[in-house]
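stage 2 :: seqdesign
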């Protein structure tokens, strides 16, 4: 009941992901990013703790050489975690290397795909070609990382999507600061991916200004909105 993608922008080093599901609040439970470290997804009978754990292992160095390698982290988590057969994990490190674990008890038709600086995974699918369609769309698209990730979600829908309709979606991007510079979500909507694109179109022109406000308020523009953040 979930399909998702994580990716890296080779031009900027941005790291991010996008996810959609028939369940409510999917992005808050499944998608995690950390600037300069990686992007992680935990889904299929979700344990949100695993998202943060994978990023912590990346940040602390997952092997004796202290390398930020996704495959080392996934191997360690699979070896050390209870109920791992229920979990589907996707991880991308700061170099764009990816790794995936799909447990033996992943729901329904499930599949995954890895591409250049990206990886996708899904469960309870209408067909097993959905993750590859997402990877292909990501690789072929251009522009801001958030837009490319949303494009990939749309490609997943076009390729068949889940067995049933999706109800929530989200996109998150980390870059240079300690918080996600993009963290947009749509919950319990009949067309969450289209609405997510609309919200992104509204947010994109304001993104840099919000970051500037946090770093240097004196040089930040004001939009003149009551209760302006």
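stage 2 :: out
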């Amino acid at each position: 009941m979930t399909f998702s993608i994580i990716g890296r922008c080779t031009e900027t080093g941005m790291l991010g992901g996008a996810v959609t599901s028939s369940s409510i609040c999917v992005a808050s439970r499944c998608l995690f990013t950390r600037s300069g470290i990686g992007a992680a997804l935990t889904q299929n009978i979700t344990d949100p703790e695993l998202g943060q754990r994978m990023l912590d292992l990346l940040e602390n160095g997952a092997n004796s050489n202290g390398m930020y390698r996704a495959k080392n982290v996934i191997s360690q988590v699979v070896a050390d975690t209870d109920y791992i057969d229920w979990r589907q994990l996707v991880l991308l490190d700061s170099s764009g290397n990816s790794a995936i674990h799909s447990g033996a008890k992943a729901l329904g038709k499930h599949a995954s795909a890895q591409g250049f600086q990206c990886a996708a995974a899904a469960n309870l699918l209408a067909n097993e070609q959905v993750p590859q369609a997402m990877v292909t769309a990501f690789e072929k698209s251009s522009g801001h990382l958030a837009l490319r990730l949303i494009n990939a979600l749309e490609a997943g829908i076009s390729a068949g999507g889940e067995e049933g309709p999706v109800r929530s979606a989200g996109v998150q991007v980390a870059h240079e600061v300690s918080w996600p510079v993009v963290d947009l979500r749509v919950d319990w909507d009949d067309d969450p991916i289209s609405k997510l694109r609309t919200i992104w179109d509204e947010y994109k022109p304001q993104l840099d200004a919000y970051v500037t406000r946090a770093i240097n308020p004196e040089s930040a523009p004001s939009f003149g909105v009551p209760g302006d953040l």
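stage 3 :: structure notes
- The radius of gyration is 17 Å.
- The mean pLDDT is 93.
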